[in-house]
Automatic annotation (TrEMBL):
One Gene Ontology molecular-function label: diguanylate cyclase activity
A single cellular component GO annotation: plasma membrane
GO terms (BP aspect): cell adhesion involved in single-species biofilm formation; negative regulation of bacterial-type flagellum-dependent cell motility
Catalyzed reactions: 2 GTP = 3',3'-c-di-GMP + 2 diphosphate
Lineage: superkingdom: Bacteria
Coiled-coil features, chain-numbered ranges: none
Organism whose genome encodes this protein: Rhizobium quercicola
Name of the featured protein: diguanylate cyclase
InterPro entries attached to this UniProt entry: Diguanylate_Cyclase, GGDEF_dom, Nucleotide_cyclase, PAS-like_dom_sf, Rev_trsase/Diguanyl_cyclase
Chain ranges of the GGDEF domain: 166-295
Pfam family of the protein (one): GGDEF
Enzyme class: transferase
Length: 295
């Protein structure tokens, strides 16, 4: 029966590690499929502090301690690659995301409290979740962030402003006479213009700026750690690169109008700064278009 039990443990689809409180690998079972896991048999008898990079080892030690202190199932997610593990055997060449299910044992192993740590490869699941998250945050046409992600970003920046007084500015802009562009050149040309605007934003704005399509031909740019006067200068740099070329030998003479604002003390909602920037946009429209106004 003992031989059969060991055979069952060896056949577990996911690797199970017996780890002592001090971080020693007392035993390893299962996880033999090298398409999904590295061969960990060479780790038995070694310490996580000898096997893993310092920051990883400290993290594992902390999670072992949490499981021992709580006495209940402890679940964590983490990323490891073969290069993170000194002495890892054959296995995948890429990084792997794991779900670790850690349970304290009710007996000591080699004179120490210990846990069983079952590591499940969730890389595929994690990639699907990331793709779904990206789809939920991204505008399908332009690849920019969508309204949902924009509001989330503004809420975060407002909280930082309230806490640290770190300023954030916002530019709201749209294409002048976009309806006429659609009517005269067709909706495909209109879509191409929006895609080109998105490309210009990525090219001429800073890496820290958050660019979103708010809806229709309206775009919003969130500029962290930026006063509205500096934001106006950045916005003008973008504006002068329009008109745009839709495709070879086809120039679109559409211009953009925008409004800039930054957070102020009375702001309670992220919509407050959007409202002021939107008012600046309409000031630009009334003043003849092809300009950016500050409020």
């Amino acid at each position: 029966m003992q031989q059969q039990l060991m055979s069952i443990l060896s056949s577990l689809p996911d690797p199970a590690f017996i780890l002592t409180r001090s971080g020693r690998y007392a035993a390893i079972f299962g996880g033999k499929d090298l398409r999904h896991y590295h061969d960990g048999s060479g780790l038995v008898g070694r310490s996580i502090f000898d096997v893993l990079k310092e920051d990883k080892a400290q993290w594992f030690a902390g999670e072992i301690e949490k499981a021992l202190e709580s006495g209940v199932l402890h679940i964590v997610e983490y990323e490891l690659s073969g290069s993170d593990v000194n002495g890892a055997g054959d296995g995948p060449s890429h990084s792997i995301w794991f779900e670790g299910r850690v349970q304290a044992l009710d007996f000591q192993v080699e004179g120490e409290a210990a846990v069983v740590w079952v590591a499940s490869n969730i890389t595929d699941k994690n990639e699907v979740q990331q793709e779904l998250r990206q789809l939920s945050e991204t505008d399908a046409l332009t690849g920019l962030y969508n309204r949902r992600k924009l509001i989330e970003t503004l809420d975060q920046r407002l909280a930082i402003f309230k806490r640290e007084k770190s300023q954030t500015s916002v530019l709201v802009f749209d294409l002048d006479n976009f309806k006429r562009l659609n009517d005269e050149m067709g909706h495909q040309a209109g879509d191409a213009a929006l895609v080109e605007i998105a490309r210009l934003c990525r090219q001429h704005l800073r890496q820290s700026d958050v660019i979103a399509r708010f809806g229709g031909d309206e775009f919003v740019i969130v500029m962290p750690d930026t006063h509205r006067c500096d934001a106006l200068e950045i916005s003008e740099r973008l504006r002068v690169h329009v008109p745009i070329v839709l495709r070879e030998n086809l120039r679109c003479d559409a211009t953009i109008s925008g409004g800039v604002s930054d957070f102020s003390g009375p702001d309670r909602l992220s919509s407050d700064i959007l409202r002021r920037a939107d008012e600046g946009l309409y000031l630009s429209k009334r003043a003849g278009r092809d300009r950016v106004s500050v409020l």
